[in-house]
Amino acid sequence: MKFKSTDCSIEDNSVIVIEYIVTVNEFLSDVVYVQNLPIQQVLSFYFLCFQNLKFILLLKKQKLGAMIFRRARLEDVPKIVEMLAEDALGATRERFENPLPQVYTDAFQNIDKDTNQELIVVENENGQVIGTLQLSFLQYLTYQGGIRAQIEAVRIHKDFRNKGLGEEFFRWAIDRAKEKGAHVLQLTSDIKRPDAIRFYEKLGFVASHEGMKLHFKKD
Questions:
Q1: What's the predicted TM-score (pTM) here?
Q2: What is the pLDDT of residue 41?
Q3: Other C-beta atoms lying within 10 Å of the C-beta of residue 156
Q4: Phi/psi at 211 (nearest 5 deg)?
């Protein structure tokens, strides 16, 4: 038997709701029609399904985890920098050291006091920081005074990858951008990350513009 799931808020730790009743009804209709089972047997199966509903919800929760998205705090910065430095490209531009360079603390303080910046960490049900992302909200005169949301630095801790968490992160970010009144959510991706680009396309992002950058060398 297959179970379908509906979208829900991750921010309040809700467990993903399974459209259980509809699916069971569809299944029972097929069983009664094809196999002509006695009604007592059908009702017994129906009761058993409801008995197991709580167990199935718990399994679903264990699979995806109850995640909390919250604003980062100063004590989260070392963990965030660690995740930023975990991949091949990040390792060339970050300095994950002990003690952490002061530049990261300075940057965090600038971000934290800016109401248009949201540096987010994601915790699992055990309180472990398993990921991070940053949302920037850019006010424009164009689009009749529209707000453009930018998502950057999405990272999942190496111990929690390949569990479908990346999509959950983006679903949360999309909902958050809508809550803030943004008319578009945009991102950039290094052309050296073809897998990431395919992932973004799967989520509905479209390569509608050609991006260009001018990097400045530090003295």
A1: 0.69
A2: 61
A3: 20
A4: -95, 145
